[in-house]
Amino acid sequence: MNVEFLEALQDLEREKNISKEILIEAIEAALISAYKKNFGSLQNVRVHIDRASGEFKVYSRKNVVDNVVDSRLEISLEEAKTIDPRYQIDDIIEFEVTPRNFGRIAAQTAKQVVVQRIREAERGMIYEEFSNREGDIVSGIVQRMENKNIFVDLGRVEALLAPSEQMTGESYRHGDRIKAYIVEVKKTTKGPQVMISRTHPGLLKRLFELEVPEIHDGTVELKAASREAGARSKIAVYSRDENVDPVGACVGPKGMRVQAIVTELRGEKIDIVKWNEDPARFVANALSPAKVISVDIIEDEKVARVIVPDYQLSLAIGKEGQNARLAAKLTGWKIDIKSESQAKSLQILPSTYDEQGNYENYELDYEYPEDTVEEVENYDASYDEDYDYDADYEEVNSEYDENYDESYEKTNENDADYEAEDDQKS
Fold it and tell me: Start and end of every S1 motif domain (predicted)?
């Protein structure tokens, strides 16, 4: 029986991933509870299980005192000295009281305690495992939905994806495999609760670490990230090695690396810019794909005043201010964007201009992909066509003048006829 007992402990250790020592301690506590229930709850007992043979023994513990009040807990000094002359007051003497059998009720009590201790130990191990993984990325399978809360199976525990942490427009179906970011791990009465997120900027960072080996090995460092989940994101990267292009490393051959992340985030657009220790240049890079004329940094107010060409103003601000908002989050600076004409009317001089007083465009560290360059050039060209007010004005004026001359001549002819008729009447 003892051999079978040890084998059962080994099986539990493999199945539950709980150490054998924890299981034995749980069984010892269960036997103490069972003994007290069967043989007196006031007794002070200790249970010892031999780790090699599996045999267990129960010891009753008594304090050495002068006057005995409760014989179940105390023993007189004289009686103690008959056992061993070295005993003194306040010493503890143990007597073996191992029973032949515990009985059915005691055995059931022991079983409940063992199961409860194993469950607590399992929950404790799960909590320790996932609490150490806060800020990490996990992969799980969607199990069910309750009140817009999504429960994701992570293997040993179910994680909760709250509505506020779900991407806008993203649908979750049973059996879908998703990646998420561990935000927090809580201890509850039902065990550890893992809170995950699909909208946290940390998810973007961890996905790039998985896809880009240069970030994982430390060659390329991801300095900052800003995100509006489901719509658009920006990340700033920096290379410790001058021979490694951080933007190119993140984009990957033919854009494969960044495309894999875009697919995981359900089509979310990602801007990759080069980080720079100069705040002005970093702000200019962060506003890409817009072209920037100059950036003035106001340290006291933590404000960056940016001047852009007139036709680039809407591109710099972005749809509903999205580009400027993401750039501000990325850099940590408040960004005030003015067009070139606005800057001239307000007499705002940029910090970078040449001897003739003309603005010098920033040479951005970010090299645009071909499709982005074509898109910007097409945008500029279409804007210029609409913006050529002088040509349109001359053409409209010339047509207006011709029409006006013709109508004027007809009016004069009509007037002359009217005067002749008047003369005849008179």
Answer: 135-199
